[in-house]
Amino acid sequence: MTVQSLPPGHVGTVVTALRMARRPTPGPLPASELRIEPWAEPDLDRYRALFRRIGARWLWYSRLVMSDAELRAAIGEVHVVRDSGSGEVGMIELERGPGACRIRFLGLVPELTGRGHGRWLVGAALALAWRDGVDQVELYTCSLDHPAAMPAYLSAGFTAVSRAFESFPDPRLAGLLPSDCAPQVPLVELS
């Protein structure tokens, strides 16, 4: 076993690539009061705010450091999840390519975590991803993700195909995310 030191101020994670090479048998989605709507041209400030609300606990930061032009170019096919009060409480973001669809971002706000909506969200994402001409659906997750994420993906029919190690500057130290978010990842202050 090798222990690898990280540069000061960095966080490390194991990234797992998942693939589904066969369209699942369609079935009913689990019941949910949530609904999904296409978000054709997301307002960038609202997109970033929702991205932050969903992902701060898991140290999602990539979209927060992009300029408006970079973000506009990077955003894929976005579907917003709404609650009964029409509030934005989640998102599914897809990237389509020849024969494949990648689920780039998939998540709900922390207030909905642990209330049974995850299975519904994964099912809804798969229903959106598997369109005509799609031969496989891909997804990347990491060890910083919610502990129920990997079991949910495997249960839905994904197979792990590779792993990699990624390190990145801790977004809390840069002020991109609050210092108290992601309590499962201790903040190592720079000395």
Name its key features.
191 residues, alpha+beta, Aminopeptidase, 4 helices, globular
In short:
The protein has four helices and seven strands; from the N terminus they run ββααβββαβαβ.
What does this structure look like?
This protein has 191 residues and is of the alpha+beta class. The protein has helices spanning 44-55, 68-74, 117-129, 149-156, and strands at residues 10-20, 35-38, 77-82, 88-97, 100-108, 136-142, 159-169. The chain has a seven-stranded mixed β-sheet, with helices on both faces. A hairpin with a 2-residue loop joins β4 and β5. The mean pLDDT is 93.
Distance between the termini: 28 Å
Are there runs of 5+ residues with pLDDT below 50, and where? none
In CATH, the homologous superfamily goes by the name Gcn5-related N-acetyltransferase (GNAT)
Global structural class: alpha+beta
CATH class: Alpha Beta
- How do the strands line up in the largest sheet? 2-3-4-5-6-1-7
The biggest beta sheet is recorded as: 7 strands, mixed
The name CATH uses for the topology is Aminopeptidase
Structure summary, number of beta strands: 7
User: Could you estimate the helical fraction of the residues in percent?
Assistant: 10-25%
Tell me the Rg in angstroms.
17 Å
What sort of overall outline do the alpha carbons produce when their principal axes are compared? Answer: globular
**Mean pLDDT, all residues:** 93
Number of discrete domains: 1
